Every structure is written in structure tokens, then in C-alpha cells.
Amino acid sequence: VQLVESGGGLVQPGGSLRLSCAASGFTFSNEPMSWYRQAPGEGRELIATISPTTSSRSVEGRFTISRDNAKNTMYLRMDSLKPEDTAVYYCKRTLASGFGSWGQGTQVTVSS
Hints:
Blueprint: E1 2-6, E2 9-11, E3 17-24, E4 33-38, E5 44-50, E6 56-59, E7 63-68, E8 73-78, E9 87-93, E10 106-110
Parallel strand pairs: 2-10
Antiparallel strand pairs: 1-3, 3-8, 4-5, 4-9, 6-7, 7-8, 9-10
């Protein structure tokens, strides 16, 4: 079981990024999936969850969570980024715990 995030990086305020979470080793299309983030000195915060049969939905007006079950991949599109969005972003198998339930994270830094 493996979850691998990618797409993070340094972006200016107001910019956009699309994060990806590539899944393997389990039946991705059967499971809800989640994005979390953890800012420096803070706990891990849930951003959004997407059900197995939902392809895309808006979150908080600036973010869009989506998934492509044919590619075993989940995405997080982030627009109008703010410095307070700076964090490590993680994907998670929503209902799982322990080994293989989290990815390793991808750093997003919003700064001019």
C-alpha cells in the first residue's frame, strides 16, 4: 500500500498549485480519500474528503478536491493561495489507520 503526493513547491500569494496523490496497493475506487495539511507548529488539519463516486467538488471556494479512479489518483487544486496556506499537505485513506494510510507529504510554501 502506498500513497505518494507531488506537486508542492514555492508559489507567490495569489498563485495556484495542483497537488496529486498517486495510490497503489489497494482498491482506490472503493475508498473515500482525504487531504490534510500541517502548518509549522500546528496540528494536522482536515481540508476535505471525497467519496469514491464523486469526481470533483469545491472546498472553501478556493480549493477543489477531485479524483480520477481510472488513474488511481486524487488531486487538490488550490487557487488564490495565501501565506497562511503554507504547510505540508498529506493525502490519506479516509477510513484506514496505521501503515499505508498516509502519504509522506508535499511542502507548499506561499511567499513573495
